[in-house]
Amino acid sequence: MSKNNELVDDLVAKLKRRQLVGSSAVAHATLKLLIVVISKNNWSTCNQLLNIVKSVGQRLVQANPTELAVGNIVRRVLHVIREEFREAESSAATNKNQSEFHAAPLTTSSSMYNLLGETSSIPDDNVQYPSSLRSNIIQEIREIKDELENIYDSIKNQASLQIHSNEIIMTIGRSKTVEEFLKMAAVKRKFQVLVAESAPSYSGQDMAVELSKAGIETTVIPDSAVFAVMSRVNKVILGTHAVLANGGLVAISGTHMMAAAAKHHSIPVVVCTGLYKLSPLYPYDEDSFNVTFNPDSVLGFEEGDLIEKVTVTNPYYDYVSPDFVNLFITNQGGHPPSYLYRLIVENYDPNDHTFDL
Amino acid sequence: MPPKEKVESSEQVLQAVILADSFDERFQPITLETARCLLPLCNVPLISYTFEFLAVAGVQEVFVFCCSHSDKVKAFVKKYEKSSNMKINTIVSQELMSVGDAMRELDAKQLIDTDFILVTGDVVSNMKLDQVLEEHRARRQADKSAIMTMVLKKASPQHRSRSVGDGSLFVLDQGSKECLHYQPVKAFKSTREDRRMTMNMEIFDKHPEIQLRNDLIDCQVDICSVEVPALFTENFDYQDIRADFVHGILTSDLLGKTIHFHEVSDVYAARVRSTQMYDAVSKDIISRWTFPMVPDSNLQVGDCYEYRRGLVYKEKSVVLSRTCVVEEKVVIGANTQIAERAVLSNCVIGKNCIIGANVKIDNAYIWDNVVIKDNCVVQQSIIANGAVLEQGVTISKGCLISFKVTVGANTTVPAYSRLTALAEGDEDDSDAELISDPAVVGATGRGRSFTEAEGSDDEDDEEDPKNKQVSMLAFDMSELKLAAKQQEDSASDFESEASDLEEDLISPEEELDREVAATLDRAFQDGHDVDIAALELNTLRMATFSNFKEMRKRVIPGVLKHIDPVAKAGSGKTAKEILSRWGPLVGKMIHDEEDQVDGAHVLHRVCATLYRDVAQAQKVFAPALRYFYDEDILEEDAILEWYHSEKSQQGTDIEKKLREVAAPMIQYLEQSDSEESDDEDDEEDEDSE
Lengths: 357, 689
What we know:
The structure holds 2 protein chains of 2 kinds. Chain A is an alpha/beta fold. Chain A is built from 14 helices and 12 strands. Chain A has a 7-stranded mixed beta sheet with strand order 3-2-1-4-7-11-12, sandwiched between helices. In chain A, helix 2 runs antiparallel to helix 6, helix 3 (about 45-65) packs antiparallel against helix 4 (about 70-95) and helix 4 (about 70-95) runs antiparallel to helix 6 (about 135-150). Residues about 100-110 and about 115-120 of chain A have low confidence and may be disordered. Chain B has 3 domains: about 1-270, Alpha-Beta Complex (Spore Coat Polysaccharide Biosynthesis Protein SpsA, Chain A), CATH 3.90.550; about 305-450, UDP N-Acetylglucosamine Acyltransferase, domain 1 (3 Solenoid); about 510-689, Serine Threonine Protein Phosphatase 5, Tetratricopeptide repeat (Alpha Horseshoe). Chain B is built from 24 helices and 35 strands. In chain B, helix 21 (about 635-645) crosses helix 23 (about 655-670). Chains A and B meet through helix 1, strand 8 and helix 13 of A and helix 2 of B. Chain A: Keywords: Cytoplasm, Initiation factor, Protein biosynthesis. Chain A: This is Translation initiation factor eIF2B subunit beta. Chain A: GO terms for molecular function: guanyl-nucleotide exchange factor activity; translation initiation factor activity.
C-alpha cells in the first residue's frame, strides 16, 4: 500500500475533481492502477492481498461514488484473486493428499453456494503457494484488461442480429457503445436513426454528427418530440452509465422519458453495455447514484435576480427501472433483465459488495 | 508519476501566489481569533477552495503569504500539503500591510522565475485556467509588455455574488483583449471624485472601439509575469493590486506596459470579501453553481457528505430526530444532533453541534461545536465555533457571534450585533480579563459587544462607513437608500458612467442644479474668465430651455457659497474678494429692472438659507448688496422696490434681520432721492421692527 500511495492519490484526486469521468475511462484507469498495486506490493496470503486491494478500492469508490465502474472493476479483481488463491490451494492440497487418498478437487466451482462456506475456510498460513501465483493473478487481470479493450468488438458483432433493414432506430445522448453498434450494423444494413439531442448537455448532437459521418441516415430531434415520433420507431437502442443489480439503468437524463414512451407504444428497448458497467449494488432510492450538475446550462448564472428566487437542479442521469428494458446486449451476448443476477454471481464475489475491511 | 513528468519536461513548473491575508477588518471580531482564509465556508476552510482551484489548474508550486495568525495558517497548510500533490510554501511576514507589501516581499525574495497565478486566499472558482494561461503565454511571446491578464466574469448588476461596495469600472478593447482603464466604484459615493471618472483621451486615438463595463465581477484571479512584483518594488506606494497597480500602470505613460483581460461566462468565480459575500458564496456552493466543488464531493479528507433532494447535504453520522424539519439548502456536518421539531432552512451547520428542540434556524451559518438550546431563533447570522446559545435566545439578522461567546437565556440580540468573548485591549494579552456585558449577552452570558474602533487602522477611517456597511451580512439595501436620502446634500454633480445607487429619477430641475453647480465649481477651481463662465452658463440655459430667472436662482448661491464669512482678508475667500472676482458673472444674468428686483430677492433669500448664523449672513449680505449697487448690477430703484415689497417683509427671522441690515443703505438711498418723503421711510422702519 505504502509504495503506490502517490499513484492512488493521483487517481483519487482525478476522480474527485471529475477530471476523469465516463465508465470506460475510469474502468481502464482503475484496472491499470490495480495491476501496479498488486505487482509492486508485498503480500503472502490471500487476506493480505484482498485487504490491500480493498483499501485502495474503498478510497477510489469514495472519491466519486457515482462512477460505479470503479467499484465493479475492483470487485472483478478481488474475484479473480480469490479464484486464483483457491486454485493454488486446491492444487497444493491435492499434492499433499495424493499419497493418502485421491480427494476430488471440486471446490473450484464458481457457484455462489459453494463460495459462501468456502471463504472463511481458506487457510492463510501453512500453505506453500506456488511461485507462479503472482504472475497467474496478474495474467488473469490482464485478461480483464483485454476484455475491456475488446468490449466494443464483442458487442458490435451482435449488431446485425438486432437491427434489420429499413428499420427506424431511436437513441439518446452520446454512447460510444451504441455508436459502434450502429456503425457496425450500417455496414450490412440500411436503416434510419433518430437521435434525441438530450438537453442540456446536447451530447445527442455530437452523436448524430458521428453517425452521419459513417453514412447513416440520421435525424436529430428535440427531446420534447420523442413521444410524438415514437410510434414510427421500430426499436430503441440505449447506452447507459451503469446497470444496477436489479437490471435498472443509470443513464443520461432523458432516457427514462424515452423508455417510458417506448413502453407506451410497445417498442422494444435494447441496452448496449459492457459487463464492467454491471454493478452488484441495489438502488434503494432513485437519486442514490445520480449526479446533480451545475445549473448553469439550465439557467445562466448571469440571471442574477432570478437565481436567488428559484432552485434549479440539473441531474445528469436518470434512473430507469428494469421493467422498461427488454434486452441487454453485453460483451457476453444478449440477456433479458431477469438474467442479470446470474451474471453478477459469475463475475463478483458476494463478500465484495462492500469494501469494508 | 508519468503525467506530471511530462508536464514538467515540456514547460516550466507552474507557480501560484496566494495572498492569504485580507488586509481588512470586515470579518471582525471573528478574524481577531483566526485568519480569514481559515474560516469555514460550507464546513470547509476557505483556503481549501483556493488550493483546489489551483490544483485543478495544474499548479505545482504554491507560495502562501500570510501575516495575521500566521501560525494557524502554517499549521493548516502543512497538514493540507500532505494530502495534495502540490508543493506549498508558507511565507510569513508580520510587516505585510497590503497586497503591495506582499508583492515587494515576493520580489525581494526572488521566489518566482516565470509567469505565475496571483490569487487571494478567499477565491472560490471552478474555472479552468488552461485557456487563460495559453492566451497569456501567447501574448507574452508576441509582446513583452503584456505583463498581466485579469480574469473577469460577467454578471448582472444586482447579482448576489457581486460584492456590494467593491464595484469596478473597466474600459476594455474587445479586439485586442486589452484593459485600457480601471476605476474602482464605491457603493456610496460621498465625494465628488467618487462619482466621476477621468480617462485619458489618447485611448480613443489608439482604440477605435472601446467598451465601458460595469457588469463584470472582478474575482482577482490574475496571471502575472515576473515584472509585476518588480513594478511593485519600483512604485513603493502601490498598495492595492487594482486601485493602485492596474490604475497606475494604465495611466502611466512612462512604463508602456499593457494589461489584458480574459472574460469568462459559463464558470463560477467569486471572492469571499465580506460577510455579505460569505453568504452569497455559501448559497452558490449549496446550489451547486461551483460544481464540482460542492459539499458532496468532499474536498476535505475525511468528509463524507451525501447529497439529497432539495439541496440537503448531510454527513452519515448526523442524528436527525423524527420530527425535525430539514427544509431546502441545508448542510449538516458530522456528529451533529438535531432535536425534535427544530426547523432548518438555508443554513450551514458545522460538526459536533447540538441543536435543541423547537429551534428555528434560517439563513444562518453555524460553525463547529456550537450548542443551541431549546426554543432559540437564529436568522441571517454567523455563529462561530464553540458558541453557546442558552434557551430561548433570539439572534436577529446580520449578527456575528465570535468564538466561545455564551448568550444567556431568553436574551434577544439586536440586528447587526457583533459579539466577542475576547478581552478588551491587546489580543496577545492573555492576562486581560473578559468583562461580560449582561446587557448584551444576558445575565449568565459570556461576551461583550465588539466596537469597530478597536484595532482598526487610521487608513480605514477615511473610508465612508456606509461603504463598509453595505458589504455586511444581511444588509438591506432599502435601509441604505433611506440613510442616503437624508444625507444627500445640496451639492450636485455630473453623473459619471458608473451607476449610482440612489440615482433613479432626476427631475430636469435637479439636473439643472447639478449642471450649474458643476460649471461653477469648474470655473472656480480652474480660475476661468468670467466671460467664459458666463458663456458656459448661457449655453447651459439654452440647452435646458430654462430662463434667466432660473439661472439666477442657481448662480447666485453658487457664487455666494464660496464666500467664507470668517475668512481673513487676503485669503481669497472674503466676501469682497470673491465678489470682485465673480460678481460680474451675476451681472451677466441680470438685464432689466425686473431682473434686478428678482436678483435682490434671490440674494436676500440665499444669504438667509446659506448661513445658519445671523451674524455670518449679515457679513455676506451687506457687502454683497453694496457691491451690486456700486457696480450698477442692482440699481437704486430696484433695491428700493425690493425693500418695500411685501415679499421681502415676510419670511423667516433671519430673512427679517437681513432686511434690517439693508436699512441704513436704504436710508441713504432715499435721502439722496428727493422724491421720497421722510415720513414713509419712518413708517417702513416701524413696520420692520
